[in-house]
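Supplementary Methods S3. Complex input for the protoporphyrin IX containing FE-bound model.
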Amino acid sequence: MASSPSSEQNTSDQNHDPKRPSDHFDSEVPDASEVTQPRLGFVGYLRFFWRQLTSMRTALFLLLLVAFAAVPGSLVPQVTSDPNGVIQYKAENPGWSKVLDFLGVFNTYSSVWFSAIYILLFISLVGCIIPRTMHHVAALRSQPPKTPARLDRLPGFLQTEPVALDAEDIDEGIVAARHVLRDARYRTRMFDDSASAERGYLRETGNLVFHIALVGILIAVGIGGGFIWTGQKVVPVGQSFANTLSDYDSISPGRWFDADALSPYRLTLTKFVAKYDESNSTDFGDPTDYTAYVRTQVPGEKPKNQTIKVNSPLEIGGTQIYLLSNGFAPIVTVRNPAGKVVYSAPVPFLPQDTSLTSEGVIKIPDGLAKEVGIIGLFYPTECGDGTCGAAPHSVDPRQINPVLTMQIFTGNLGLNSGKPVNAYSLNTDKLKQLDGRGTGKAGISLTPGKTAKLPNGLGTIEFTKAIHYAGLDIHHDPTQYWVLTFAVLVFLGLLTGLFIPRRRVWIKAVRRGGKVHYEYAGLARGEDPRLDDAVAEIARRHSQLLGLTIRP
Amino acid sequence: MIEVHEVVTQASLVQNSLVAIYSAMFVYALAFIFFTYDLARRMSDAKQVAAPPAEALVASTSARPRAGGTAVLDRAAALGVPDVPGIPEDTVKPKRSISGRLGMIFTVMAWILHVSGTVLRGVAAGRVPWANMFEFTLTATAIIIGVFLVMQFWQDLRFLGAYITGFVLVALGVATTNFYVDVVPLPPALQSYWLVIHVFVASLGTGFYGLGAALSIIQLVQARREAKGLSGIRGVPTAQRLETLAYRLIVVGFVFWTFTLIAGSIWAEHAWGRYWGWDTKEVWTFIVWVIFAGYIHARATRGWRGSRSGTLAIIGFAAVVFNFTIVNIYFHGLHSYSGL
Ligand code: HEM
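Predicted complex, serialized as structure tokens:
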């Protein structure tokens, strides 16, 4: 017999099994003598610590810890995804917020403790996959292990009816075995009276690709964070946006943002179309489509007409442009008492409800006798017939009966203080209100094309009409395709790592009492529901080839 | 005129869809009753087995024709047990239980109604029937039952029938009373083929996880009985076999879930301009993913097979349900598609 009479079942084979941490289910239970080592030197401690960190149990613990640590960030608003929510939350729970702030819960996913957990997890992961990868690369080039001495205790065991065969027949039988196994895409190793075969190395490859790609995602996201920048720009219909730093309303640059690297394209919003549901009585007026028609101009190229929709961003100059919001911008013209225009522009208003009742602020620091601030409300369809109650509001997001109402304030607008101010809000604490609610004087209310006098002889204000604006988000993320690539690798690795069976199959000629029969058995490395069927299929083919019958 | 006509047919389609769903619920309820009855019988059989087996065997076989055995006989008759209690399944081939079979037949009937109702809803809306919580519940529960029925070809899972039909019945009840919304056009953010892919695969994942968790629950029950030296529930595989079945389903669920995460990120990138933003819904989908990654690891970690990993599977599915109900309704985020 050529196959070595090694340990009885020979199931666990250090060189051929995929490498696993010592506390893996398939690993041998370590000797007690190994566990209670007498004394550990410094290196010994380090090694012990490293082994602990890269054990299955630690990986499991850290995984569950990540899941657990992610919970608080979903219960409390996050600065990154919901900044206004954070402000509101802090106002409502001042005391408790201090504790949460201290713990970094408003920034859970970049907090020290959350980062510590996932960094530990990934160190563990790297420590786990490096030795496994080296082992697997060696295994890919190695031969299947020796045939176990006895097959009858292994899964899927089958045997043929014994027949009288001579040595030459047996040789032929083993060659046939190799043939059958190779056909079934097994890597096969021949012995005198047996063939040993293994398949499914891809299972381990897939598993490693999966884990390595996870590291890839982490690195790509980490590096990407430095290069990503996102900017916002509100563009009323007819106006343009140039991709230069000064033209953004706001921008949040990554660490390595370089303003000079912005590609100098230009974009003009030529038309904006909002469609609303007009058929359905229950949800009348719900938006069904927003389309921004833009004309883009990249230097050196012909201008192009393109569209931006909610689910289809525009790619231009290394950036993506998303349509994230829209609304109305009333065009307002202010003249001084002499009739000279001191302000004339569309003013983007923020929608307050689904019927697009919108609020906005107009600031006129120069040109009039005093600094003037105006809080305006725009109603695309003001419910003007008195059937909707006293407070004016809009009943339709389309402009059917547009009305602009205003309250006028004077005083220091704070625009010269050097501090950044929000264009959409007016701090009225130190301003003097001249008309509107609480002053006893009626506020100004205008329909398109109409002009009204400002109080105290400050001048006049004209409401020409309201036009649409598009709220654009401009992103640059050079690493997102890397992240996508790694994510696809994660998925493919997962499929192969889970569903390709790694199995060994043996075919062996056994002499007993002058006769010979063939035995078949297999062994699964990892989950393998179809092992028995696979062995049976091989046995069927092989026995058929030799004209033998399988013993039932 | 044409528009009026359209509105009318849409309304009647919606109406028919609802009728189908209500009928399905009624038939599921019947299935649930039969399955529960079947399960109760299996449990009580198992209790009998717990008595010293030799004695039970003698008692029941000898009692059969005689008056002395009335206690046993009456009990058997009352429960509609055709075979003799007390004989382990291995010794006597179990007779097919009528209640279990009825449960199965009713489940198939209910499922056909359920699927018809869901499809009608899609036709009425002129799009896929999983764009809000009501529709998603219809689709995901139809998938749970579908997987349950298909699994029967490999493994008799009737012992899960009570749990599965019960769960689906409750889910449909909550959906029709609390989640119901009329058919409305999709808001611009949902108008994307990613809605078709991402949400459907999420429901597939939910279906497989749900069935896997169900098996894990029974696994824990079986394991406790086995640990106490009791025999298992009749007709139910061993705890180890249940664990293997649960694992196979959950692994498939995990693949779907991984896909859901990736597809969701791509969609988020298209719609919101970033692929990941730790929005509450994203966080919980991530948490679920990590829990099940933990489950897969637990199954490979010495000392964590068996009831421990089974518990993780149940926690994981609880997180799925939490993600779908509480997070959708009470947590603020960009994913406000519940339609409520
Ligand atoms: C980022 C965290 C991790 C995640 C999300 C993760 C996820 C997974 C998944 C889904 C599988 C099954 C898929 C497959 O076999 O291809 C798996 C298998 C495995 N993982 Fe991880 N893993 C992580 C970290 C680790 C770490 C730190 C270790 C090392 C201690 C590790 C060791 C293993 C091993 C040995 C297997 C194979 C299990 C088997 O034999 O069936 N993983 N992991």
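The radius of gyration of chain B is 23 Å. The pocket of protoporphyrin IX containing FE is lined by residues A 20-21, 24, 54, 56, 59, 63, 121, 124-125, 128, 206-207, 210-211, 214, 493-494, 497-498, 526; B 293, 296-297, 300 (CB under 6 Å).
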